[in-house]
Amino acid sequence: MAEKQSVVIIGGGPAGLTAAWELVKDNSDAYDVTVLEASQEFGGISRTVKYNGNRMDIGGHRFFSKDDRIMQWWKEVLPLQGAPSYDDKKLGRHHELTEGGPDPEETDEVMLKRHRLSRIFWNQHFFDYPISLSPNTIKAMGLWLTMQAGFSYLWSCVHKLPEDNLENFYINRFGRKLYSMFFEGYTEKLWGRHPSEISADWGAQRVKGLNIWNILGNAFKKLMPNHKADNSKVETSLIEEFWYPKLGPGQLWEVVADNSKAHGAHIITGAKVTAIRTRDGKACGVDYVTENGETVSLDADQVISSMPLNHLVDALAQGGATVPENVVEVAHGLPFRDFVTVGLLVKKLRVKNTTSVPTLGNPPIVPDNWIYVQDPGYKVGRIQIFNNWSPYLVNDPDNTVWIGLEYFTAEGDDFWNMSEEEARKFAISEMIRMRVIDSADDVIDAHRERVPKAYPAYFDTYDRIDELTNWIDSLGNVYCVGRNGQHHYNNQDHSMATSMEAVENIKTGREDKANVWSVNTEKAYHESK
């Protein structure tokens, strides 16, 4: 029998756990797999935070992909619901249920089908998200502003700007007026930089084919008789239905970790990687420190890393690799945007449900998954309503509303360094000012969660990232996967796909890593069929 190849996987998020499962599910005799996770939780920013009987989804995770193998993969981990969920029953809501699928009221290991609704909050009005010139938008903007936006868009169709920054990217697709209203301030809030300072690559990855014509076309189809959503033919930002684990995204990754362990993978939490040892120009082992301060050394034939690239370079240097100065400079110049979520458990929302979509609550809450706060007068960037993602995230979904306020920040800045109580007071004051809640008396409980390195950013040394990735690839047996591992603003399906490509390379002996790096870089990749 051939000796097993030892594969060390750094990180227990979507990328790392996908790699582990792909290696052991059919090949447990071929690979000795170890996953090293620095925290005690699985899922990275796709984890589920548990607090006082309620659960928080960090950043909101729709389970939807244009990549059929990812959809099938998820369905194999958590089967689709075969009976109505709690809110389906209460609201008389109907989905296409999976024959023989589990009943969400009887088991936790189930994937729910969810209706997607997100809107923009701007100048005390709700707008469609993505922004569209619908009757509601025209009414909220007023005729004069709508005309300005329309003429501005027509001008942008004729006079294209060079797409050498994110500002020009947006103006070319939406016109300067809509850009200034809905994109400029929000982008600066998100990244802490003006869009003119940010690479257009970010827009190409996140917005891709989305523009006014796509939005209007999608809106027109909705008006047609017998309209039924076909998610395979619309841009990702326009999808109307998605899947969602009953107990939040972290539940799926906890199941994947358990499945991987059952097939022989070693999964170690509280393991902080300090060095990746090299020999003859390749990685040969990984050292990590346990929570007790003990250093453990593992041999490795292959290393799959989802750790941030600056940490990877430091670990390689610590393990004896001679890292060129320019590579160190690029790695340590790659910026991140950090993230704070403040969860508020409230008695009721002041914001009324004026849509035709029925919702739970007493009184009924607005049906949005997210509310995007494009208005620059508020620091909060998005508001999640966890009741609408899954009623099982909320201890009492009929009588309380569990919302998550998302703040984009920088680790160590004034907002990041606020105490729990200061963050709570700040969040409550913004919700009162926005007229989302009436008063602080409506707040029953609160929890603040800080997430460092949540969003890889596309400025500073990002335009030199090829110098870094080319050097890492020269090591041969080190694979960079996932959002932070590649410094790509990936969705979790893209992060999973990077690992699937890396595992395929290991299995087939392919040396070129272009397939691993190219996930979610092509304009049409996973976005349109």
UniProtKB/TrEMBL annotation:
Amine oxidase domain mapped to chain residues: 15-456
Q: Where is this region: Disordered?
A: 85-108
**Gene Ontology CC entries for this record:** cytosol
Per the UniProt record, the source organism is: Alloscardovia theropitheci
In this chain, composition skew of type Basic and acidic residues spans: 86-98
Listed GO molecular functions? Answer: flavin adenine dinucleotide binding; oxidoreductase activity; UDP-galactopyranose mutase activity
Q: What is this protein called?
A: NAD(P)/FAD-dependent oxidoreductase
Q: Which NCBIfam families does the UniProt entry name for this protein?
A: PRK07208.1-2, PRK07208.1-4, PRK07208.1-5
Q: Which domain of life is it from?
A: Bacteria
